[in-house]
Specification:
The protein contains 4 helices and 6 strands; from the N terminus they run H-H-E-E-E-E-H-E-E-H. The protein has 123 residues and is of the alpha+beta class. It has a 6-stranded antiparallel beta sheet with strand order 1-2-3-4-6-5.
Length: 123
Amino acid sequence: METFAEFIARIDNPEHQARTEEVLNWVTEKFPNLKQKIAWNQPMFTDHDTFIIGFSVSKQHLAVAPEKAGINRFSEEITQAGYDHTKELVRMKWKQEIDFSLLERMIEFNIADKAECSTFWRK
């Protein structure tokens, strides 16, 4: 988590800071083979130098970015979990419970789907 320490420290709200740290720690522990990286001022995880998932914070929510393919694959489940989403990210409001099972499936999908990917982003 050393990679993300400065990012977490810059989050103004202590509750948002704790929630973000909880999620990033969970990903780190659940997927120890993923590499931690800060890019575009946000924490993300990569596998063989390809993007798997990224996170960002706003006043209203923690955003999860599994790329458009991840949103498309899990759109119905994202909505069922009570989260709002766009074409590129999922918005988890700060007071909502984190659906770690859904997060796990999104990460596993990207790892498998991008196993042969040689670029950072999908083409």
